[in-house]
């Protein structure tokens, strides 16, 4: 167990390498390069955080918080600000207490997002984890737009060792969901995870489809606990925020899966998402394998980021 935890944290540290190099080396050189806490010092910190994709709004609130604490605690040395800064970043990412409630309820997890962000992969990884922790999981292949999407999810279902409900390419996604809900009820599944299409003929189509899927779940499975996760690709930085906002208009989003943090220096977006959208990042993807999905933990994230 201790080894598992170390491996888990070790993979997070490794996955965040590029982001760490981007943000932390900048911050460290500010702390060592300044001999006094002045406006220029704060401006440098601001610049580094913005470059690290924390976004302007989030950066401003972090630096404001820092200024206030420095004043309150009569801090004089730049080095002493480091811990305050880290805590202030952490404070931007409050998950709330019921983040993983769906694991303890009969639930439907709807996974949505634009094309290529990592929906199907994340569904597969999540299925594997839930199955390993003793849950009965069923997958719904509601991306019927391409045959390859159904094949890909079928592969993941095999890998995770869970059931999948699918129809052929071109069938109505809402009909797949209808079948999947029936299967979840009759087989007494704990969690039904629905993969959806990221690309349809146009964006309006996509959003209409999601509303329809939502209506089917509400109507056919009213007792189910609902979890709706938007998948965002960490490598797209600030663009991810705009995507999340669009999905917030059509569905009650309960959280974010932030993928591909292993390949990007823009991992600071994890902070911006939570701070600016008020949505918790519940999972992060740090690779393509089944074990490369982690529950987000602000403490671990900040520790891995700042190498502490
Ligand atoms: N490095 C890395 N690659 C990832 C991660 N998550 C997904 N990918 C890769 O991203 C690519 C797209 O992933 P998919 O799961 O197919 O994305 P999708 O959102 O289902 O795509 P569409 O169905 O086309 O909309 C694949 O090559 C995945 O292996 C991650 O956390 N890290
Ligand atoms: Mg997919």
TrEMBL record:
SMART domains: AAA, SRP54, SRP54_N. GO terms for molecular function: GTP binding; GTPase activity; signal recognition particle binding. This is Signal recognition particle receptor FtsY. Belongs to the GTP-binding SRP family. FtsY subfamily. Gene3D superfamilies: P-loop containing nucleotide triphosphate hydrolases, Signal recognition particle SRP54, nucleotide-binding domain. Keywords: Cell membrane, Cytoplasm, GTP-binding, Hydrolase, Membrane, Nucleotide-binding, Receptor. One of its GO terms (cellular component) is plasma membrane. Transmembrane segments: none annotated. It is found in: Cell membrane; Cytoplasm. It is a peripheral membrane protein. Its EC number is 3.6.5.4. CDD domains: FtsY (cd17874). Residues 280-293 form the SRP54-type proteins GTP-binding domain. GTP binds at residues 113-120, 195-199, 259-262. It comes from the Bacteria. Pfam families: SRP54, SRP54_N. Part of the signal recognition particle protein translocation system, which is composed of SRP and FtsY. Involved in targeting and insertion of nascent membrane proteins into the cytoplasmic membrane. Acts as a receptor for the complex formed by the signal recognition particle (SRP) and the ribosome-nascent chain (RNC). It catalyses: GTP + H2O = GDP + phosphate + H(+). GO terms for biological process: SRP-dependent cotranslational protein targeting to membrane.
């Amino acid at each position: 167990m201790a080894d598992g935890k170390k491996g888990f944290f070790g993979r997070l540290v490794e996955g965040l390498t590029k982001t760490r190099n981007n943000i932390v080396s900048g911050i460290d050189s500010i702390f060592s390069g300044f001999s006094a806490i002045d406006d220029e010092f704060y401006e440098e910190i601001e610049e580094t955080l913005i470059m690290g994709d924390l976004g302007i709004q989030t950066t401003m609130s972090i630096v404001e918080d820092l200024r206030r604490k420095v004043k309150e605690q009569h801090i004089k040395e730049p080095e002493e600000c480091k811990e305050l800064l880290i805590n202030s970043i952490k404070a931007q990412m409050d998950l709330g207490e019921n983040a993983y409630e769906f694991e303890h309820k009969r639930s439907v997890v709807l996974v949505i997002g634009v094309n290529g962000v990592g929906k199907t992969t994340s569904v597969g990884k999540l299925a594997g984890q839930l199955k390993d922790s003793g849950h009965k999981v069923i997958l719904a292949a509601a991306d019927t737009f391409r045959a390859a999407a159904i094949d890909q999810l079928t592969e993941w279902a095999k890998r995770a060792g869970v059931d999948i409900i699918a129809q052929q390419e071109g069938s109505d996604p809402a009909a797949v969901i209808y079948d999947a809900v029936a299967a979840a009820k009759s087989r007494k599944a704990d969690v039904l995870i629905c993969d959806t299409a990221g690309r349809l003929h146009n964006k309006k189509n996509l959003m209409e489809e999601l509303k329809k899927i939502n209506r089917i779940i509400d109507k056919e499975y009213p007792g189910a606990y609902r979890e709706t996760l938007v998948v965002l690709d960490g490598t797209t930085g600030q663009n991810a925020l705009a995507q999340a906002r669009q999905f917030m208009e059509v569905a009650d989003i309960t959280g974010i899966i932030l993928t591909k943090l292993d390949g990007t220096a823009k991992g600071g977006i994890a902070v911006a998402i939570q701070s600016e959208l008020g949505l918790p990042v519940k999972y992060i993807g740090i690779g393509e394998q089944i074990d490369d999905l982690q529950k987000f933990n602000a403490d671990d994230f900040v520790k891995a980021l700042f190498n502490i």
